[in-house]
Amino acid sequence: MPIYAYKCGACGHQQDVLQKMSDAPLTVCPHCGAEQFQKQLTAAGFQLKGSGWYATDFKGGGGTSAPATAAASTAAAGAAAASSASESSAAAAPSGGTPCGGSCACH
Questions:
Q1: What is the pLDDT of residues 58-97, one digit of tens each?
Q2: Residue 77 main-chain phi, psi, to 5 deg
Q3: Per-position b or e across 81-90, b if 16+ CB within 10 A of its CB
Q4: Which residues make Cβ contacts (< 8 Å) with residue 5, sequence separation at least 6?
Q5: For residues 83 and 87, what is the distance between their CA atoms, to the nearest angstrom?
Q6: Which strands, in side-by-side order, build the sheet including 14-18?
Q7: How many whole angstroms separate alpha carbon 53 and alpha carbon 64?
Q8: Model pTM?
Q9: How far apart are CA 13 and CA 36, in angstroms?
Q10: Contact in structure between 34 and 10 (CB atoms under 8 Å)
Q11: Residue 57 carries which DSSP code?
């Protein structure tokens, strides 16, 4: 059975009531007797437990899956290697241009 939150519009009294979904809503305030006792909209409270899809697929909260993270780190490592290779070839080249004059297959 669900728990419903009620609030009186006349006196402001609040109360949580355990009742069946098929029961009629309460209208009379138990505190002041006014006919302004109404259900309030509340957020549902629940917790996912166990080893189901939530625990295996979404519980980490990282936002990306492991294969996507591995691909991104591989791409970053490749870019870093290319950057260091271009830096080392630029350091080996004389200030006037390429070491071989640009007529070889390496440039």
A1: 666 655 544 444 444 444 444 444 444 444 444 444 455 5
A2: -65, -40
A3: eeeeeeeeee
A4: 14, 15, 16, 17, 39, 40, 42
A5: 6
A6: 14-18, 3-8, 37-39
A7: 16
A8: 0.43
A9: 10
A10: yes
A11: I
**Residue type at 101?**
G
| Pair of tokens at residue 54 | 């939530």
Question: What residue type is 65 in one-letter code?
Answer: S
65/21 Cα distance (integer angstroms): 40
Name 16's Cβ contacts closer than 8 Å, sequence gap at least 6: 3, 4, 5, 6
Amino acid in the structure at residue 26: L
Closest CA to 37 of 26, 50, 46: 26
